[in-house]
Write a structure and sequence with these properties.
Elements: H1 14-20, E1 30-32, E2 46-48, E3 51-57, E4 60-66, H2 71-77, E5 87-89, E6 101-105, E7 107-118, E8 122-131, E9 135-139, E10 144-155, E11 158-171, E12 176-183, E13 187-191, E14 194-198, E15 200-209, E16 227-236
Parallel strand pairs: 3-6, 8-12
Antiparallel strand pairs: 1-2, 3-4, 5-6, 7-10, 9-12, 10-11, 13-14, 15-16
Length: 241
């Protein structure tokens, strides 16, 4: 404790001489030279009293008594080695804090291969081999696959960082090409007893106003009369150039 004492002793070892003076060695004390040093002449010795040091390691608290001056020395005396990316708080080269608290953080890393789907694109183009108003598939599309190598850092088993290192396309996406038919095919239909030629038939809905078709027998409405929606087929008979 910063005090100097001088005495004479006929003991055979330094430890026995200290005991004769009432200086007992406690757990964690640091004595230089050691207590087993024989007394063969004048000798100077240094005694540093140990203190409680609490080391938090992987969620567990380890308490030891030590006179270590630095964090690294205290960890070494406790048999705790920092490996790889492990670190301590405070750092190894820092003095042991006044409250004797040290935290050891175990660091591990893993490399993961993550795959992602690359959606394919779709385009449209005219297809003169397909009939008008039809849809064809000229080229079938396919999604691609991209892989990335991800390095994940864990501190005391908890993920703290994720970093993409490399990316590589394993399968190139293939664009899907759809065709819309442009080939005009003339067909015939009989409408009201007349045979007509047409090239396109479209289903449409026609809305008409009919005051006498309200759904009530023998009754016509004036004013807010109902509207009637009728489904019909529209035939295009004059192809565009």
């Amino acid at each position: 404790d910063g005090q100097t004492q001088q005495f004479r002793s006929a003991a055979t070892t330094l430890g026995a001489a200290l005991a004769q003076q009432g200086i007992e060695l406690s757990l964690g004390d640091s004595l230089e030279p050691s207590a087993e040093t024989p007394l063969t002449g004048a000798l100077s010795a240094s005694l540093q009293r140990g203190r409680a040091i609490n080391i938090m390691l992987a969620g567990d608290m380890l308490t030891q008594y030590s006179a270590a001056a630095s964090v690294g020395e205290a960890l070494a005396q406790a048999g705790i080695a920092l490996q790889g990316e492990d670190f301590s708080e405070p750092a190894e080269d820092q003095p042991v804090p006044a409250d004797g608290s040290i935290r050891v953080v175990r660091v591990t890393e893993s490399v993961q291969l993550v795959q992602e789907i690359i959606p394919h694109q779709t385009s449209w183009q005219p297809d003169d081999t397909a009939e008008l108003d039809t849809i064809s598939v000229i080229q079938l599309g396919q999604d691609g696959v991209q892989a990335s190598r991800v390095r994940v850092r864990f501190e005391d088993g908890q993920e703290v960082e994720r970093q993409n290192e490399t990316e590589r396309i394993l399968v190139q996406p293939v664009e899907q090409i759809n065709g819309y038919g442009t080939n005009i095919v003339i067909r015939t239909a009989v409408v009201d007893g007349v045979t007509i030629e047409y090239y396109r038939a479209v289903q449409v809905f026609a809305t008409s106003y009919s005051p006498c078709r309200s759904g009530v027998p023998n009754q016509c409405f004036n004013g807010s009369s109902p509207w009637v929606v009728t489904q019909c087929t529209f035939l295009a008979t004059e192809p565009a150039s």
